[in-house]
Design a protein that fits this description.
By secondary structure, the chain is an alpha+beta fold. Helix content is 21%, strand content 27%. The radius of gyration is 25 Å and the shape is globular.
């Protein structure tokens, strides 16, 4: 066998060896490809709206919250101040799903499958202080709204992180939107960053501009 043939055979052997190494490596540690999540549009026969059916009406435009350094602060009239990362909220508390319709004062509505954690589970971990009457939610854009503490503790109100099986996009309130069922849409605060427990009444952004502080759907949104 001449020198050229030997070199050719050696090159072929090297190519085969390298190919086998790559094959075995990929077979043992395959690349995981995350597929785009599909939006659910029907649950048990109930037709759902699309997450694209909202109108953008926030006070300062879409907020782009960085999930990696996000903190949810729980403070005020509590036994202990708490601070959770986004992942801690999702892993620490039980998640729930429910279909809830959001009704906006502008005349449009959307019915969606929401997934989130119970607000009362979060504030109970902080310990509600004696004399607490009001729970205040604050957003990344400076928006705020409030509710009687009983609305939260006596109900299954979600702090939502998914709608229709899709993680909230920035324009829908990532990381968290309050699913304020039985309330007008202005009470469904997006981009929640802080929860305060207070002994007194509080009027949020729209409430301090003449909207109803209760925000009950069965009443006018204009009023006390």
């Amino acid at each position: 066998m001449d020198k050229k043939a030997i070199i050719a055979l050696a090159a072929i052997a090297l190519i085969i060896t390298v190919s086998l190494l790559f094959y075995n490596q990929n077979r043992l540690s395959p690349t995981i490809i995350e597929l785009t999540k599909v939006e659910v549009r029907e649950v048990n026969g109930t037709q759902l709206s699309s997450i694209a059916d909202f109108r953008e009406n926030s006070i300062a435009g879409v907020q782009y919250v960085n999930g990696s350094d996000y903190r949810l602060i729980v403070t005020g009239l509590v036994q202990r101040d708490l601070s959770y990362s986004y992942e801690e909220v999702l892993s620490r508390f039980q998640s729930y799903q429910k279909i809830v319709q959001l009704d906006c004062v502008e005349g449009w509505s959307v019915k969606l499958l929401w997934q989130g954690v119970l607000v009362k589970d979060i504030i109970q971990e902080a310990g509600i202080g004696e004399g607490a009457k009001t729970i205040i939610f604050r957003a990344a854009d400076g928006y705020s709204t409030s509710f009687p503490i009983d609305y939260i503790t006596n109900s299954t109100i979600l702090l939502g992180y998914k709608m229709n099986n899709v993680t909230l996009p920035p324009e829908r309130g990532f990381p968290f939107q309050l699913v304020a069922e039985s309330k007008w849409g202005y009470k469904w605060i997006k981009w929640v960053v802080q929860i305060d427990i207070s002994p007194g009444e509080y009027r949020g952004y729209w409430e301090s501009r003449g909207y109803s502080n209760s925000g009950d759907l069965n009443s006018s949104f204009i009023g006390p």
